[in-house]
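Fig. S4 source data, part A: sequence.
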Amino acid sequence: MKKLSQAASKTFQKKVYSHYRRFGRAFPWRVAVTPYRVLVSEIMLQQTQASRVATIFPRFVKQFPTVRSLARASHKKVFLAWQGLGYNRRARYLHLCAQRIVKKHKGIIPRDPTILETFPGIGKATAASICAFAYDMPTVFIETNIRSVFIHEFFPRKKIVSDQQLTSFIAQTLDVKHPSRWYNALMDYGAFLKESYNPSRTSAVYAKQKPFENSLRQARGALMALLLSQKNALSFSRIQKIMGHFSKKFLWQALMALEKEKLIQRRGDSFFV
């Protein structure tokens, strides 16, 4: 593990904060910060661009302003409020998290990352980021923009960089007094870098996203939108007529996957949310 000098760490922090002061982004979850709003935004931001989340987040927290209001909502209402973000399983995970927080934690989002890691849809990185932004805890985590910053600054010529290598630098340069502000600054600098090129392409975990058009993901999203728009269950034959551009086998595969993940329900040959 390479050891950074205190001077090198301070120089790096000054560079990142200088960019943040000039070009820091404004997002709705950075205003009136509460642990609940952080929880919602962090799960929304998984696999989704911040600009897209910024359009959905305000209406979602307006409809469900507290963890208790989200916990008692129906699955269908949560899915409807989630529309436009994709990856609908995250909506279910968020709903299940809210219910667990109310039932087992008296409506208070835990401060302990190891507890949060046991929640549906929350891994180690998301658990640490929730604690950093909700409680200003000096946790260490990595996500796509942070990864880009550290590759750009510390491994510009290396062909393959592991997250383990990056984590050492993240820990050494962390602003332990202001972790929430620091991580916002890092993410904004990373987003800026990716406008011109993507440093993360040399990451060991980098994978080019598969085309969305005619994919199972597209079919799943279209099916969810269709079923959410209906008051009653739709038969498979009716679904086929409406979504005839997808093959019968492909539609059935998508429906079975959605049912398995408990995003939709099945009654005989009909489906509903």
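Fig. S4 source data, part B ends here. The longest strand covers residues 265-267.
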